Amino acid sequence: MISSIIGQLFGIVPFGDIVFGFSEFSIIGFVVALIFTIVVYLTKPEKQLEAQKFRVEDKLEVVSLEELKIRRMMAIVCGIATAGAMLTYDLFDYALFLTLVGIANIGIVSAVKKDWVLNASYQYGLIAMIATLPLFGSAGMILAKTGTLSLFELPKIPTSLLFEKIIFAAGMAGETGIAPFYASKAEMFRAPGSPYILMIHLSSLLLIVRTVEILLTI
C-alpha cells in the first residue's frame, strides 16, 4: 500500500527522532516547495491598485521595506517548513511542521496595516491554535494504540485508526484553513504582496496532498 502511493523509496536519513524519507512523492513535493521558496526570496512584491469609493482615481498600494522584510522572512519560514513536511516520515514531526506552517501563514500577513487583513489573520490564528488540539491529540492516540508514530511502521500494524484519522484530518483542515474554515482567512488574500500571499496557497495545497497520502498509507 505504501509503495503504491509514495512510489519508489530511495532511502531514509535519520536525525535522532526526525526521520526524512526520500521517495518519488516526497522529493517532488520537497522540490516544489524549495523552488517556490527561492522565488519568494528573489522576487520583489507586487504593487497593487485599489479602487477608491466615490473617486475616479485608483490608489497605489506599495509594500514598505520594513513590511517586506517581515513578510519575506515568514514566507521563507513557511516554505522551509513545507519542504520539511514533505520529507518527514514521523507523524509527530509532521504535525509540528504543519503547525509551523500555520504560524508562518499568519506572520505573512500580520505585518499588513489594514483592518480587514488583521481581523482575518486574527480569526485564522484562533482556528489554527484550536486545530492543534485534534492534530496532536490524534497523534497521541495513535501512539497510545500502536506504540509508534513512524510512517514506515504504522502500515504494518493491523489496527483500525479510522477515528484517529478523522481527528487528524480535522486538525489539518484547521491549520491549512480549508473548508469549512476558509472563510476565516479569505480576507487575508486581499493583502498586497504577491508572491508572499501565494506561499499561503502553495503550502496549504502541498500539505493537503501530503496529509491525504499519510492517511491513506497508515
From TrEMBL:
UniProt KW keywords: Membrane, Transmembrane, Transmembrane helix
Per the record, the domain of life is Archaea
Membrane spanning stretches: 18-43, 95-112, 124-146, 166-184, 196-216
Q: Does the keyword Oxidoreductase apply?
A: no
Q: What is this protein called?
A: (NiFe)-hydrogenase-3-type complex Eha, membrane protein EhaH, predicted
Species of origin: Methanocaldococcus vulcanius (strain ATCC 700851 / DSM 12094 / M7)
